Amino acid sequence: MIISAVGFIVIAAADFAYQKFDHTKQLKMTKDEVKREYKEMEGSPEIKSKRRQLHQELQASNQRDNVKRSNVLVTNPTHIAIGLYYKKGETPLPVITLKETDAMAKRMIAIAKEEGIPVMQKVPLARALYSDGQLNQYIPGDLIEATAEILRWVASLEQSEEQ
């Protein structure tokens, strides 16, 4: 009797292990189910790539518009680009129209050159405007003198072009 009880316990333990393994196996998703669930959650890869492409095109046109709104780009040769807009009688102080770093800064500099917008390399001013200035806001008060120097340079460029 003890031998048959031990035998039943061994068989029950083996059956329990098999049942647990089989149940876990049935709960797993097939590759097709995983792909289908990913598409439902994240969207179709084709639609995602089209959306990404449209976003990049829209962003590129906005970048060009931001550069066109600027009178001058103040740069730290390649890592920072700050766009400034000032029109006497229209704005009391210069406005920061764009703030970009690294690859985007290089792109803004290239766009400015294409559009004929002056690019001035002033490392300390570019860094100060980037750290202290806010996008679409007036420049900080402590940077007025340095910025005025840049704007005088831009005005002299415009006067020499008119002559």
From TrEMBL:
Region (Disordered): 36-62
Cellular component GO terms, alphabetical: plasma membrane
UniProt feature, compositional bias: Basic and acidic residues: 36-48
Domain of life: Bacteria
UniProt xrefs under Pfam families: Bac_export_2 (PF01312)
Listed InterPro entries: T3SS_substrate_exporter, T3SS_substrate_exporter_C
One record GO biological process: protein secretion
Signal peptide feature range: none
Family to which this protein belongs: Belongs to the type III secretion exporter family.
Protein name as catalogued: FlhB HrpN YscU SpaS family protein
